[in-house]
Amino acid sequence: MKKSAEVFVLLFALISTFAGCSGNKKINLNPHDEEAITPDLQWAVVKVPYAVFRADCDYESEIIRHARSGDIFLVRGSKTVLYVFEDTLLESDIDKEEREIIEESENVNKNKKPVRKDKKSSSHKKRKVEQNIVWYKFDEGWLESSQVEVFDTKLKAEFSSESYKK
Predict the structure, then answer these.
(1) Cα 67 from Cα 146, distance rounded (Å)
(2) pTM over 0.85
(3) How many CB atoms lie within 10 A of CB 88?
(4) Which stretch of DSSP H or E encloses residue 96?
(5) Are 79 and 100 in contact (CB under 8 A)?
(6) CA-based nearest residue to 45, from 166, 133, 165
(7) Exposed, middle or buried: residue 164 (CB in 10 Å: 0-12, 13-18, 19+)?
(8) What rounded mean pLDDT belongs to the chain?
(9) 58-79, pLDDT tens digit by residue?
(10) How many C-beta neighbours within 10 Å does residue 10 have?
(11) Model confidence over 76-127: pLDDT tens digits?
């Protein structure tokens, strides 16, 4: 019984050793490219079909270059910008507590449903919305964070880049 357990463990160890080595994955590691594995740098992969580099971290800033999905860039810095804008809510977006249900009157046909009215006279309501947007600085210009995915090594960025190019 003890011998069969030892044989089983030995057989399992041999199979797992060879199974782990059977893949033909190539890692293109250039020993002269120190930036590829430097942990202090960040790399960004464009994840949208077309990204727009801007001269400054602002949507109104001049467009200076374009990039395609899967392109890789070295991140030179980042900045968080607070945007404040007015958002219009439609009647369907307003909370139920803000609504007033007017029950059917006795004179109205009983087949009709109750009528909902907003407390305000219009069917739209405005509110101020604040949103922090992260912008990344590159040699080519600024990109908004929703357009890129950031990695801590170039190798990870290159691996991810392949999925965005398909």
Answers:
(1) 14
(2) no
(3) 9
(4) none
(5) no
(6) 165
(7) middle
(8) 75
(9) 999 999 999 999 999 999 999 9
(10) 10
(11) 999 999 988 787 765 555 554 454 444 344 444 445 544 444 444 445 677 8
